[in-house]
Amino acid sequence: MRIAKVCPLYYPNTGGVETRVGMISERLPQEGLDLEVLTCDPSGRLPKEEIINGVKVRRFKSWAPNESYYFSSSLRRYLLRCRANYDLVDAHCYHALPALYAAQTKGKHKLVFAPHYHGAGHTFFRNLLHIPYKFFGNKIFEKADRVVCVSKYEESDNASLQSRREQSRDCLERR
Known about the structure:
With 175 residues, this protein is α/β, with parallel strands linked by helices.
């Protein structure tokens, strides 16, 4: 099985999403799965491709104002061009655009989405931007074959997840 994990950042960047994606990604090749992490590099200083702890990492040029959003037309184009190469795309982080790109470019492969949703932006301005983004963000849930919650908050308090749960039985899994 060929899997792409899509996330805004990956090692050497550290944070909750990066740590979770890294821990899972390092285990999958040991189980015989063909895995590739597709991520952004707003600094432009990291290798475009490298192997980290047995995981193939492919980085794409991006623009991330104040370390947010991670706009990357090259990642979106790659996902569109190469979507048939994957059996499963596992997208992470509702708060950044790479997960939206994974949903927009979904082909015949399965799409798993882990929102890592924490309810609000980090600033007043980001909260304002979230109002129109909800329209696009909900598209990720609509395209996802499975939504994976990583916290009880996501499972119980997120209106998008509640709505998604009502629309499709068995699409919500808690890890």
